[in-house]
User: What shape does this take?
Amino acid sequence: MMIIYFLYGLSFGGLGLAAYLQMHQSGDFPLKKQLPWLAAFGIACSVSGFIDMFLTNQTADEITTILKTLRMVVQPLTGLLLLIFGWGILKLDPLPAWTIFIPGILIVPIAYIVTFAATTFITPSPIEIPIDIWSRYLFYLPGSIIAGIGFLRLWDKQRKLGYYDVANLMLGAGVAFLFEAFVVGLIVPAAPYGPASYYNYDRVTYNALIGEHPGSSESYGLTAWLDYKRVLQATGLPIQFWRMVSAFAVTFFVVRGLGVFEAIRKREVDALQHERDEAEKETMQAQIIARQTAESWTDALVSINRRIAEFENVDGILLYIIENAKILLHSDFIGLALLNEDRSQLMLKCYSNELKTERLFEPLLIENPIIWQSVRSNNLFCSQADSSIELLEQVCFPIEKSASSIAVVPIELDNIAIGALWIARCEAKEKPYSQTDLIWLECMADLVVIAIQHGLMASQIQSLSIVEERARIAREMHDGLAQVLGYLNLQVQTLEALHEQGNSEEFINELHHMRQAIQLAHADVRENILSLRTTLANDTGLIPAVEEYLKGFEIQTGIETELSVNVIGELNLSSVAEVQLVCILQEALTNVRKHACASQVLVSIVKDDQLDFEHVQMEIRDNGVGFITSDSKRHFGLQTMRERATSVNGTLLIHSVLEKGTTVLCDFPCLQHEESRGTKIALPVLDLGKIEPLP
Amino acid sequence: MNLREWALPVYTVLIELSSGALFALWILRTLTGSRIDEKNLDEMTKIPILIIFSTIIAAMAGAHLHLSRPYLSFLAVLNFQHSWLSREITFNVFFFLLTGSLTALVWFVPEHYKLKQWLGWAAILAGFSTIYCMAHIYLLPTQIAWNSTKTFLSYYAGMLLLGSVSLITILLMDLNFSFKNNQERSDFHVQFVRDAFIWLTRVTVMTSIMLMLLNAYQFDFLQRLQDPTAQTSLNLLLSIYLPLVILQIGFLLLGVIWLVLTLRRTMKENGSIRKLLSPVYIANTLILIAAIIERFLFYATHVRIGI
Assistant: This one.
């Protein structure tokens, strides 16, 4: 028995010590606030166990008395500490609202039990017996039950959280405390107190106050088996052994539970850290996606703008715009429709679906009310998840496929809607378009307008160029061929007169002059033909065109030409600038042929780091007779060259030294640099169908 | 007193408690009826009346533990004409049925306000009658300690004391429950409980004083009687049961003073009465223990003439 009491005391001592040590650990976990009570309970139980151990050993009477007195203090204290601990455990999680009635309902039985207990103290039996029994009934039994229920609630909670390891330990602790309630709180010595006198009725010794004899009557409902003797008879082991088992179970599960709670806390910290890492990753991923999206949009916009600036075919630009918009806005269909001249019909001009992107040469009539409404009201439209299915029909082309969501923006020119651009998604599971999508689509609609405006501008420039070129040819013919023909007419008359006079010597002399004039006219005509033939229409590029022209010039004039090209990367000049550059070259070489008396011309084209790759320089240098540059403003050809350079934001410099030659230097800005100057040209509205590409 | 006899204090005290609580509740309900609509009135009395009815059931169940053959208890009503016990049981059955019907009406029938009112007063009458019969049982010429008007008075005083203090607890529990359960309760309900708390505390104080006076009267009564049985009863009170007498008076005084002081402090600080639940639990427990000890002493100190 001593060993059992020793182990009992040791077990609870271990529990108290473990709880005490855990109290001083860092961290927070469910049992933390209850640890002082658990530690006190464990130590008090341990003391109680060791007192029982010493009491089993026959010691001196004085010591026995002291120990018994101490036990009378420790035992109710133990139960009280357990009650407080159990209540704390039970309240770890908020209790259901109805539990507020429990204390109120318990008032009645508590009052009766306390009264009953009070009456038993006036009986003549030894005081330690009622203390022992009532400590168990009033404190230990409810304390163990409450603690058991509290641990079972923790088991349920941890199980729901998925912490099965700690849940199992909490279940074990709960069952252990309920077992504790049974073996420590309910099984009491056979004595005439409270329930004990009821279910241990036949074992109750004679009691003077009650005035009953043992065995005089049987209690009904319960058999008499909850006292120490019956436990020994039933199990073959004394109640102290079962209490020791209960103490081991409680200690084992609670101490393990404390450790696991700490592990859980660490696990939760790790989980939080992991969660934070995941959140960071997601944020990074979102940022990457956002950046990629922004880059995709930027690339697309730059590319579209470049195509517009380069005066590419308008149809091609529009198809490029809608295809990019369809991809970037994750759509299954995109359509571009324009109003006809009397604004009575909306015609689909081009579209892009999952199969192809094409311009319709026989425009299709659009009758969808949403698109029409957007054009008429000049407002954006974005369908919602609950939008009517009927409204989403006839949105895509071919029209067999209806959309699940749609976004429409009007195409505005001078604040007047001239058409609509819309995107559609066909899969029902896809989410509707967002406001951001609408903004991007509106941006694309703006580019559509810009492309149309540029197309119109290109048409006008083309017309102007034709007029200008005709004027130039007329001027050349007037200054050259017409003058020569007029001169020849006069010469022919002179020759007729000399022939009539029979002045053969003078006749031959004039004939020689005529031949020279015809040769000059021939040279002019051939040069003009060469100039007219030298265009950039065959897409060979500026440098090959210049190279070809110089070869022709050398053959025709006999002036040695040399081309030096130092271009890093692409020239990146606008189409207009390239045309003007070639024209300037032609004019300069014409001057060389006519006036310079040069034997050699050096042409160099440069675009390198010295020019920051933002300019293209062309230099035409001859070894001719030169001229006085202060007189150059009076020369019509030089003036034209300057105007050509200025028209594309370029500069032209002429440097000439008498008897040493002339150098013409022109500097043209590259495309980006030119755009930054923000040149805007307002053009009148023209029908898209009339726009033709630049030659 | 053996364990089976404990059924008597269980039954008598709980019937007193339920009758007193229902009486106090019905007075409050009647006085408040003109200031609030019937639906809210029913909402406010739902849980209190359910607890009162449950207490009656507990009392009757406890009473059956006193009987050797509880399943034949209904036969007791057959002797209504000659036995106060039969009358007590009969009225108690009425009390039980009327309160049960009233509980069902309040919980499940939203209308019939007047019926509920009359039914409530009928149940109270049945409860009063039960207590009257209960007290009358002990007016026996052979039981000197019991055979006085003090028995009636102490039973009714006990009824008022336990009813008022219990109703305070019940109303506070209900109020806290409604707040904890996020139920919408009007400011009127809070004010109702606050006013009830004040008035019921006053009743508690007065009835406790009355009970203490009655106890003093009992001592004087027993001392003045020159009958040996009365002297024996007095001796028992002053010797073996003296600790219990002291406990009874002490608990009663402590409970009432505790209740008054906590209420007074809350009123002074203009605090929330909902926070008084724990002090009220303690006060109620102390007063209930005092009432049970008083009933225990009532049974334990009687000495029958001829034995």
